[in-house]
Fold:
Amino acid sequence: MRSVIDILDLSPDELMELIEVAQDIIANPAKYAEACHGKKLATLFFEPSTRTRMSFEAAMYELGGNVISVTGAGTSSAAKGESIADTAKTVSCYVDIIAMRHPKEGSAYVLAKNASVPVINGGDGGHSHPTQTLADLLTIYREKGRFEGLTIGLCGDLKFGRTVHSLIQAMSRYNGNKFVLISPEELKVPSYVKKDVLQQQNIPYVQTTDLEGALPELDILYMTRVQRERFFNEEDYLRLKDSYILNPDKLKNAKPDLAILHPLPRVNEISVAVDQDPRACYFKQVLNGKYMRMALILKLLKEAENEH
Ligand code: NCD
Structure:
């Protein structure tokens, strides 16, 4: 059974196929209005979420399917101590496809191993978040028209930010990209990303603490929130939370065709005044996420049907 736990579970050809389907959905939504008629999606969200859960649910409704959901760790049998494996076997009896978010790294993998329907990882702890990357990729594609030859700045909490890890993995597969990793010393990318992804493939990258110095050379700036919930102590969070605040003044030396992305939620790291800048893409990114989740649900359900 095919599941998507990590962005590398999808080949570059498959990503392109999803982008093409998403663009066709945007152009001809009516064509897809009954595509998942009679199918059910379960959303199991054991961590806070607005966009990811709602966009999965909106995606399934727009495909003519139905949704049942668990939100919050306290409202399901997980609170009684049920294992992820047993949850997988149970939920598989009710639905055709599952999207889950969970605070533990590796939880989506365990769910997929034990489920008899496709599983989509909606974020597993600080590890990965492949469907956010799908939203990011469609946004990059629509803004830049390509995935190659880009200088990509990622700024903020590169240690705990799972969207950062998945996006670096995805963009590392295309030629000619260069990464500028902008973070406080304490929040640098984990070594499995730096060593196993960037260094192993000889991908050019620099690490810096200086956002303003890096800005002029960037084609893409991916801002992120400091991930409060993953900190061991509040003092460190308070010290680091406002390390970077992007504002119109800082953007003066940026390229005119820079694309500013952010997975959201935003806290302080992008001032609201930047929203008026035509280079701000983060709300388009939200919408793109829904279309890519529609394309992914369609693909996984079709593959599951063909397996039977
Ligand atoms: C991200 C996440 O959950 O990792 N949010 C999202 O899904 N768009 C980023 C974040 O919470 O900072």
Observations:
- The chain has a mean pLDDT of 96.
- The pocket of N-carbamoyl-L-aspartate is lined by residues 51-52, 123, 129, 132, 162-163, 224-225, 263-265 (CB under 6 Å).
- Strands lie at 40-45, 66-71, 97-102, 119-124, 151-155, 178-182, 205-208, 220-223, 259-261.
